[in-house]
Structure formats: structure tokens, C-alpha cells
Design brief:
Order of helices and strands: HEEHHEEEEEEEEEEEEEEEEE
Number of strands: 19
Helix content: under 10%
Distance between the termini: 85 Å
Number of domains: 3
Largest sheet: 10 strands, antiparallel, barrel
CATH class of the largest domain: Mainly Beta
Radius of gyration: 39 Å
Shape: elongated
């Protein structure tokens, strides 16, 4: 009996140690180290009798009495991995942790992103949220970064029969100092217009988009003026090859007080596209391809004005004048293809690029009007149809403010080839035949040149709305 009693004593001690060890393990079931002085005790707030051993070696959770929890790594040590074994998440691995993410695709409460406070992007869509909006409205600013080609001059090559082209319009004195050129016109200044986009969903991953942008208006001029303190005035134009043909120039265009050039241009774009979206192998990336029709309208005007005096005197009630304006219009219609690709840098923040291009039929017209002291009025109009090319690249960033509203800003690049530009269709040739006191005859040989190209680039910003 004494031996049995001793064995029972040691059995009781062993069970007590087992229960104590199991209680300590329960502390780690929730991934938390036991607070100092609490080792071996029940978690705070756990009702008595709730910490019993369950079948299978588990312990009851204090907040879910009937659930089973088993020992594992604490939550802060959990790492989500891709199929390749590399960490994935907000930006993946180390970069995600620096931005304050917890590696599972959410922003978390990192120090860097938390500095944004209420300005942080709306992130409830998650890292894999799809690119979609119903309506966009904004402004687009474009500058023209391509120069004019030269206009046709009266100087003709005797071998080829071609008329030379030039940018120089006016000189001070016969073959004197250049004072006015088409290159003096500043086209790089940003001109702002309107952009509107509407999208209608047709089915899963497909929609129709209608887009308009335009109303950008370039209107610049440059003037050369001679103070009337000498006789005669000394401004000579390219019409007389700067006072050499005929010698002394024409009364209407040469020996002038004022020479002025002006340029005006406006563009309009309308398109309707079918877009089909696709998901990429990466959860945070997506794209689409599109096909549609496009209409692009480019209008330009270039003009030259001269003011002189009858008999080269300063009787301003008897001024001579000369006005020559050339207007071109290009109407491009055709089919285009393109696509875009977007990456969710973070939930609520996307960057992407879209490219479109096509071959278009261009219905081009050129119209010129001349009025002067020696010409009551002359008008010319020509039209031509040929193939033109248009390509567009847009790089964008979208910052989501709320469920419905986002801000979008973009860099825009637009290239158009085989169009009629007003300065390149400005025709000063065949006006050197003089009658009487140097009046122009109407023996003209008009032409239309559709070999021009134009490049626009700039920025746009606006708001997207999602129903």
C-alpha cells in the first residue's frame, strides 16, 4: 500500500505539471507572448472553467468557446508568398514594408502612408480592383512643337521648274536686314481645350466609349513697323523678292510702313471605340484592346498684311494696303486600333499608358483671298483627298478619392501626318506680273500641298465619375 501510495503521489505531480505546461502553451495559441508576471496564468478576462483541455489537445478560444486553436506563429510573423515563394503584397516584399503595408495587399498603418491622413487614396477596392469609370470631364492643354514648312516664293529654279520655299517674309531695305519670318511665331505656348469621355458597359469586360477633345485655339501674330521719318518707307516683302523683281517692289506690298503676319489654328477630335478588357497574370495589373472610328478636324489660317502710302508720302488718308489670307481645313475620317495597360501601384492609385493609331482618309481644302488697292478682290479654292496618318500616346495616373470620384492626370502626345498646313500653302508666286503702276494681275497658278505634319504634346487633368 505504501508503494502504491508513493506511485499515486508522483502520478498526481506529473498530471499537475502537464496541466501547467498546457496552460502556458495556450498563451502562445494566439501568437502573443505572456506578459511579465502572468506566466502560467489564465489570459486576462477569461472566465473560470473556460481553459480546460479539449479532446485532441486543443484549447477553447476565450471569445469562441467551441472553436479549436492550435499553436502556430504569431500574426506579426505571418508572410504571404506567391507560387514562386517570393513575398507579395502592396509592392512586394521589402518595398511594401517600407511603404507601411503588411504584405498582403493592403495599405496597413505604415508610417509613410499614414502621413497622408484623409488625403490617402480610397482603398476599399483592394489591390486587384478593376479599371473602370462611367464619365470623365477635364481640360487638355497642348502646345505645337513642330515648325512650319516654308511657303512658296516667286523664286523659280530654271532647271527643275520648282518654286523655292522660304520662311522669310519681310526685310528692312532692298535685300536688307530680315525683320519678319514665319519662324517668329510662337507656337509652343500651351493652349487649353475640353476633353469628355463617356463609357457604356455592354457585358462582362466589354464596353463602348465615346470621346471628344478640342477647342484648343492657337492665335499668334508678329508685326514689323517703320517710324515714318524718312521717305520712302523701307519695308520690302517676299512678293517682289524684297524689292528686286520688279526693282523697287510693288506699291501695295513694298515700301511699306507696316508688315504683319498672323496664324490661327483650331482642332477638334471625336471617336467611338469598342473596348475589351483582360486580366494579366499579375493580380495588380490589367489591360484592354480597342477598335473604333475616329474623326479629326484641323483648321488653320495664315495671313500677311501691308500698309503703305500713295506716292510714298505720309498722307495717311491715302494709305495703300494689301491683305492676303490662306485658310486650310483637314477632315480625317478612318478606323483605328489600340490598347492600354494599367498597374495598381497601391489600392486607389493606378498608373497606365494607352496608345492608338490608324490610317485615315483626309479631305483637305485650301482657300486664299487677296484684297488690295490694286485688286478689288480675288479668291481661290482647291480641294484634294489623300491618305493621312494619326497616332496618339497617353500616359496617365488615377488617384481615387472616394467610391465614385477619382482624379486623373495625363501626358498627351499627338502626331498627324499628310495634312495641309496654312503657311505651307501660302502662295506668293505668280504675282510678279505688273500692270500700270505695279498692280497685280490675276494670272495665278494655285496649288494644294498636303505633305505637312504636325506634333502636339501637353498635359490634361480632370475628374472621373463612377455610378
Amino acid at each position: 500500500m505504501r508503494m502504491l501510495s508513493g506511485r499515486m503521489h508522483w502520478l498526481t505531480v506529473g498530471l499537475a505539471l502537464l496541466v501547467s505546461a498546457q496552460g502556458f502553451a495556450t498563451k502562445r495559441l494566439y501568437g502573443q507572448a505572456p506578459p511579465a508576471g502572468m506566466a502560467g496564468q489564465m489570459p486576462y478576462g477569461m472566465p473560470p472553467g473556460m481553459g480546460g483541455v479539449q479532446p485532441g489537445g486543443g484549447m477553447m478560444s476565450p471569445d469562441r468557446p467551441m472553436s479549436m486553436v492550435f499553436e502556430g506563429p504569431p500574426p506579426m510573423d505571418v508572410t504571404y508568398a506567391s507560387a514562386s515563394g517570393e513575398p507579395r503584397g502592396l509592392l512586394g516584399g521589402r518595398l511594401a514594408s517600407r511603404l507601411g503595408g503588411n504584405g498582403n495587399g493592403s495599405l496597413g498603418s505604415g508610417a509613410l502612408l499614414s502621413l497622408l491622413g484623409p488625403l490617402a487614396p480610397y482603398n476599399e477596392g483592394g489591390q486587384g480592383s478593376q479599371r473602370w469609370f462611367d464619365f470623365y470631364a477635364g481640360t487638355v492643354g497642348l502646345s505645337r512643337t513642330s515648325d512650319f514648312g516654308g511657303f512658296a516664293t516667286p523664286n523659280r529654279n530654271r532647271t527643275t521648274g520648282e518654286f523655292a520655299r522660304s520662311h522669310l517674309v519681310s526685310r528692312n531695305g532692298v535685300s536688307g536686314t530680315p525683320v519678319l519670318s514665319t519662324s517668329d511665331l510662337n507656337l509652343d505656348k500651351m493652349r487649353y481645350g475640353l476633353e469628355l469621355i463617356g463609357a457604356l458597359q455592354l457585358g462582362p469586360g466589354s464596353n463602348v466609349e465615346a470621346r471628344y477633345f478640342g477647342l484648343n485655339d492657337w492665335n499668334v501674330s508678329k508685326q514689323a513697323e517703320i517710324i515714318p521719318n524718312t521717305l520712302p518707307p523701307t519695308l520690302y516683302s517676299s512678293y517682289s523678292q524684297f524689292g528686286t523683281d520688279p526693282v523697287g517692289g510693288f506699291d501695295d506690298t513694298d515700301r511699306s510702313f507696316i508688315h504683319k503676319i498672323s496664324y490661327n489654328s483650331e482642332l477638334h477630335n471625336g471617336e467611338v471605340n469598342y473596348r475589351r478588357r483582360f486580366a494579366s497574370p499579375f493580380a495588380s495589373a490589367q489591360g484592354s484592346w480597342l477598335a473604333g472610328v475616329r474623326y479629326f478636324d484641323l483648321d488653320e489660317r495664315f495671313g500677311f498684311n501691308a500698309i503703305g502710302a500713295v506716292n510714298n508720302t505720309f498722307k495717311f488718308d491715302e494709305l495703300r494696303f494689301f491683305n492676303h489670307e490662306t485658310q486650310t481645313r483637314n477632315q480625317l475620317t478612318g478606323f483605328q486600333l489600340g490598347g492600354d495597360y494599367w498597374v495598381n501601384v497601391a489600392p486607389g492609385l493606378q498608373i497606365g499608358a494607352e496608345s492608338k493609331g490608324g490610317i485615315y482618309g483626309n479631305h483637305a481644302t485650301v482657300e486664299s483671298q487677296i484684297t488690295a488697292n490694286s485688286i478689288p478682290g480675288a479668291r481661290e479654292k482647291l480641294s484634294d483627298g489623300r491618305t493621312a496618318y494619326l497616332g496618339e500616346l497617353v500616359v496617365s495616373a488615377v488617384y481615387r478619392l472616394s467610391y465614385s470620384w477619382s482624379v486623373k492626370t495625363s501626358y498627351n502626345l499627338l502626331y498627324v501626318d499628310n495634312v495641309a498646313l496654312a503657311p505651307e500653302n501660302y502662295n506668293t508666286r505668280d504675282l510678279s506680273n505688273a500692270l500700270g503702276g505695279g498692280a497685280f494681275t490675276l494670272n495665278r497658278h494655285p496649288f494644294i500641298d498636303t505633305d505637312g505634319e504636325v506634333l502636339y504634346q501637353g498635359w490634361s487633368i480632370g475628374g472621373e465619375y463612377l455610378w
